Amino acid sequence: MEQNITSTVVESIKGIASLFEKGWVVKTLVFAIFVGSIIELIQRSGGVSGFINFLQKGKRLITNRKEAELLPFFIGVAIFIESSITSLIAGTVSRPITDKFGTSREKLAYICDSTSAPICTMFPLNAWGALLLGLIGAQIEAGTISAEPIKLLGTALLFNFYAIFSILIVLFTIFKKIDFPSYTKVEPINLTDLKKDGDIFALIVPILSMLILVFVFLFITGDGNMLKGSGSTSVFSAVMGSVLITSIYYQIKKILPPKEILTSIFTGAKRMLPIAGILLFAFAIGDVTVKMGTGVYISHFANAILHPALLPTGIFLLSAIIAFSTGTSWGTFSIMMPIAITITAGIGADATALLPLSIAAVISGGVFGDHASPISDTTIISAMAAGCDLIAHVKTQLPWALLSALISVIFFLLSGFLMTL
Predict the structure, then answer these.
(1) Which of 69, 151, 221, 314 would you call most buried, defined as having the most Cβ atoms within 10 angstroms of its Cβ?
(2) Locate the Na+/H+ antiporter NhaC-like C-terminal domain: which residues (predicted)?
């Protein structure tokens, strides 16, 4: 018995260590870590307060509640680099404006949350895209399927129904002026030590440089064709380049002294280490499911009892349950993507048509968990940034999240049957 336990532990450690031999895993982990550095630099530099001051000077442009609620929505759409950054900036920047026009903190938290994970998956030039491309690429490398990762992911995103309907429904609540009940009225939470005279470019430079560098490195790694570029290499290079450019800019403008810049970089990176650890274990679980042949086993089982048209719906529901229970969309992606691809590849003639839909079902299910789970990091950050109680945010958001999920189930069913006719 003891020998079996020892062997299991040893093999587990070997399995985790072997992940570092895969370039995409290392690059994704490094990206996740140094995104923390970017967040810390923006917070310490006064970039958020600079943006708030800019809005306050032009606040006459925002004349009613609808326009005030559209502010965090558009901030969320514009900043799609990382879901935590999206929620943090959208909530912190918009809260003074939405408070003025009577929007409840719970509704602000809902808007922030609905434009974090859903938007990040719809515009995957970020760590989300790198992870998804890596997971799909691993299945191509293993010979499970034969496809171009970026093209396959791009097609799948057209069927990312949960993200699409989450975004549309939040716009519906804004334009229809739907009130959210305010269960708690709390004082604004001081998320950062903001400078009184912040520089708006201290926020723009890190984000814009990262966006531009992603496109540049996609072009370089794709030998002139961005569609063939390496997603993991591009986001890794972009975040490192952004840290460097931001540090130089802060030094030239004397926004932060060199010592505080270095402190910010290391402090922010250190705060992301637990998330990187979770990602590493999630990758390990995904690797184990492949080696155990979990997907092959389930594919035989599913083929025996399920009509191929029902497969995407089943994948979405299972992914949603896992994501909601664990609070991690990335962990769900790592577990379910190998299984979903293997199952779909094994159904025969309908595999080619259903493959993008099955991949989209995994993504949608993972986004549901990230959006609705009370233990998701973006759910927690959205509540904090909006200044409302976490449970109040979950209670007021869940009905809308479930509505998006229900509509997604209907569309996955319809799409599944249409593609297998």
Answers:
(1) 69
(2) 119-417
Beta-carbon contacts of residue 376 (< 8 Å; ≥ 6 apart):
327, 328, 329, 369, 370
Tell whether 10 is covered by a domain: no
Residue 204 lies in a domain: yes
In-domain check, residue 191 = yes
List the chain pLDDT tens, one digit each, 421 residues.
555 667 666 666 766 677 677 776 787 778 778 877 887 888 788 876 776 667 656 546 677 889 889 999 998 888 776 677 678 778 877 887 888 788 899 999 999 999 988 998 888 766 677 778 778 887 887 777 777 777 888 899 999 999 999 999 999 999 999 988 776 554 544 444 445 566 788 888 887 888 788 778 878 887 777 656 676 677 788 889 989 999 999 999 888 898 998 998 998 888 778 767 766 776 676 667 666 665 556 656 655 566 788 889 989 998 898 888 777 787 788 888 888 888 888 776 666 788 899 999 999 999 998 888 887 878 877 887 788 888 899 999 999 999 999 999 999 999 999 987 7
Nearest CA among 405, 330, 329 for reference residue 370: 329
- What pTM value is reported for the model? 0.72
In 292-350, which ranges are continuous DSSP H helix?
A: 294-305, 311-326, 329-345
